[in-house]
Every structure is written in structure tokens, then in C-alpha cells.
Amino acid sequence: TGDVVAAGGKLSIGDDISGDVMVAGGKIKATGRVGGELTAAGGSLDIDSQVSGDVLALGGSVDVSNRIDGDLKLAGFRVEANAQVAGKVMAAGGRGILGEAADIKGNAWAIGGRVEIDGTVGKDLRAAGRRVAIGGNILGNAQIDGLEIEILPTARFRGNVTYRSPRKAKIHPDA
């Protein structure tokens, strides 16, 4: 119980922790429940924890699932979120993915070389990248910037969609 601060080559956080968690290491696997905020930095992060506060995760490869009761902020070479997030999501990476299981109640911002949005964004989406593919459910407005933009047949938009690109966006007729 209480706060946890840890560093090492390979870390596994699996207990229920009532306070905040701050970890750094080469490979980090987090499960269990975190009663406060979770901050993690490392080469490979696998966060499958229920977190009562915000999550900040920085690494080469970052995967986040389970439930986040606050905001989720991710940065790395490859970042993927498949979590239920009560707040907003900010993701930056060479490849940024909001997977099919992602359910974001707030706004979402994603930037990267390749950005894929396949989950649900409860409010507005702002996505920018070299290649941006949208196949999810966007309940607010969407603003998309990219060299290549593709709106997949599974995409659903309830708000306005605007995009900027030097090329015409590929919009599937079933979207």
C-alpha cells in the first residue's frame, strides 16, 4: 500500500497499490490495481492495470489496456491503447494506435508517422501523421491532417469532419 517508486532492468508490478506508482526500466509489466497515478518509462511497457488516476507512459513500445479513470498520455516509437479511458488521450509515436477495444470518453489527440484510430472517441478527435487511417466511432468533431488519409468502411462520425492533405483522402463509401 502507499506510493511505489522502482527502477530496474525488468520490473513486474502486480499488487494492488493504494497510492501513486513511478517506475523506470528496460521492460515493465504492470497488472493489478493502482489507486493513484501511474508514471512509467522504459524500453517496453505493458500496462494492463486498473488505474484510478492519470497514466503517463513513455517508451520504445507502449501497450495500455484495462481501465484508466483519469487521462492517458503516451509517447514512444510504437504506442497502442486498448483501454477504457474516462478522461482524454494524448498519444505520440512513430506508430500510434487506438485499438478496437479503446473507449475514450473525452477528446483524443494522436500524432505520429502512422496513426490508426479503430476504437471509440467520445468527444473530438485531432489526428495528424504521414498516414492516418480512421476506422472507429468518433462521437464529436474530427480534424485530420496527413499526407495520406484513409477513412475505412467501419468509420462512423457524429460530428463534422475536416481534413488537410496534399492528396485527396480515400473515403470508403460505407463510412
Tell me about this structure.
The protein has strands at 4-13, 21-30, 33-34, 38-47, 50-51, 55-68, 72-85, 89-98, 103-104, 108-117, 120-121, 125-134, 137-138, 142-151, 156-157, 161-164, 170-171. By secondary structure, it is mainly β. The chain contains no helices and 17 strands. The protein has a 15-stranded parallel β-sheet that branches.
Proportion of strand residues: over 45%
Number of helices: 0
What spatial form do the alpha-carbon principal axes imply? elongated
Structural class computed from helices and strand pairing:
mainly beta
Instruction: Give the uncertain stretches in residue-range form.
Output: none
Distance between the termini: 48 Å
Radius of gyration: 16 Å
Please report the total strand number as a whole number. Answer: 17
Largest sheet: 15 strands, parallel
Mean pLDDT: 94
Order of helices and strands: EEEEEEEEEEEEEEEEE
Helicity range: under 10%
Give the secondary structure arrangement, pairings included.
Blueprint: E1 4-13, E2 21-30, E3 33-34, E4 38-47, E5 50-51, E6 55-68, E7 72-85, E8 89-98, E9 103-104, E10 108-117, E11 120-121, E12 125-134, E13 137-138, E14 142-151, E15 156-157, E16 161-164, E17 170-171
Parallel strand pairs: 1-2, 2-4, 3-5, 4-6, 6-7, 7-8, 7-9, 8-10, 9-11, 10-12, 11-13, 12-14, 13-15, 14-16, 14-17
